[in-house]
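User:
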Amino acid sequence: MEHPASASPEAAPSAGRLRLRQFRFPVLLVAMFGVMTAIAGINQVVSPVPILALPVGIGLAVAAVACYRWLCRTVELRPDIAELPKAGSRSQLWRGTLLGFGLFAGLMVLIAMFGGWQEVSWGSVGGLVGAAGMMSSVAVAEELLFRGVLFRIMEGRIGTAGALAVSTLLFGALHLVNPNATLWGALSIALTGGFLMTAAYVATRALWLPIGLHFAWNFTQSGIFGVTISGADVPSHGLLNVTLSGPSVLTGGTFGPEASLLALLLCLVPTVLLLRRAARNGQIRPRSRRAEHPA
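Assistant: Predicted structure:
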């Protein structure tokens, strides 16, 4: 019989890998932030050529998922990445996509009903195609960073409620660096985007639903209606070019429709429903006792 001490080194993690695992949060955070930054840079280069932006954007999204899986296996020593399950992935992506499209389209209809549409003209199919590629990679990268790394790891220490609050505020704070950003705009996108996406993750314990939701929201905003995204200084060019006019509380002002009060109210409904579902299914996790009583 083989003595346990003589077992192959591959049977257990090395000391170096175990030490790396102790610093999993900063390592994963920095690595995925780097991935997100690289994706943003590549998108900026290819965005003027829509026929190139689509395959590049989709390729970047696939590469980001592969990178995340590799990092989780290497740094966290997790053979199974539970938040990216293969079973049900397509179904959740489609559901998220339909929800994101319905929410933003509904927002634009409400703004129109209150007289917020000043002018509407046709844009281009190229803008639609380019936005699809760009927003697929952006949605994947941001969800992997904010929900896959930041929220998931923090939740293990401070519980669902604490991680939800912190990750939501950080998601909004990231948008303060945008050229036309405002404090209200950042807070609004934190509540409409960050809070909703995190609720979608908590309810399903998978990243596919929030990825689909995030993609469809951004794609409908820029690729279909052609309106400003999160305070960007470059106007969107989509299938339509919709110019909004009116009070900021209605249109979101220079930050874009995401800073509209209507967006906040509209997104509050699915957020509450998703969190209620999570609570019923026992998906709300308490604060870790280790965090309350550190050794």
